[in-house]
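Module 6 notes. Inverse folding takes a fixed backbone as the condition and produces residue identities as the prediction. Think of it as a translation problem where the source language is geometry and the target language is the twenty amino acids. Below is one complete input and output pair. Work through it position by position during the lab.
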């Protein structure tokens, strides 16, 4: 008899747990959006994609440490994380990692960050507004073209990078 009561309680508790679980209890998608970029040919500014055989991107973290955030083959676009604990992120773009000091293009992204509530499960996400871009060191990149001054999601490219393979 006691065994039937325990089994009934376990089944009831399992059923109630399943019934009371709502979509908001599970966070499926990442919350903080990344900067989306596309490499474009010099003659087109934003139309014709430029495909590189390889691309490496390092991010300078707020504490000054360097973190590789991108390593691609046959790439024309990508997504990069911004620092959430400061108002700027520095990225180093380069074509090879076989040299001790490869020539790098340095892009500084400045912004104001804030937070937006997503759901109970996901909590808050960072959003980035008033974006501006500065090319502080140029090797292959000739121009930066802003496509958006804010990042709320990853639905559009924020930055077009005009890339010239033979400067």
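Target side of the pair, the amino acids:
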């Amino acid at each position: 008899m006691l065994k039937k009561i325990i089994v009934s309680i376990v089944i009831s508790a399992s059923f109630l747990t399943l019934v009371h679980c709502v979509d908001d209890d599970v966070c499926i998608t990442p919350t903080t959006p990344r900067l989306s970029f596309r490499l474009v040919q010099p003659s087109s500014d934003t139309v014709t994609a430029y495909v590189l055989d390889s691309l490496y991107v390092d991010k300078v973290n707020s504490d000054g440490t360097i973190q590789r955030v991108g390593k691609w083959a046959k790439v024309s676009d990508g997504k990069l994380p911004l620092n959430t604990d400061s108002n700027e992120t520095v990225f180093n773009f380069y074509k090879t990692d076989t040299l001790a000091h490869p020539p790098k293009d340095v892009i500084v992204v400045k912004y104001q960050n804030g937070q937006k509530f997503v759901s109970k499960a996901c909590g808050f996400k960072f959003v980035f507004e008033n974006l501006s871009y500065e090319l502080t060191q140029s090797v292959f990149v000739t121009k930066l073209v802003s496509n958006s001054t804010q990042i709320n999601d990853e639905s559009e490219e924020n930055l077009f990078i005009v890339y010239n393979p033979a400067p």
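Reference fact for the lab report: The chain has one domain: 31-163.
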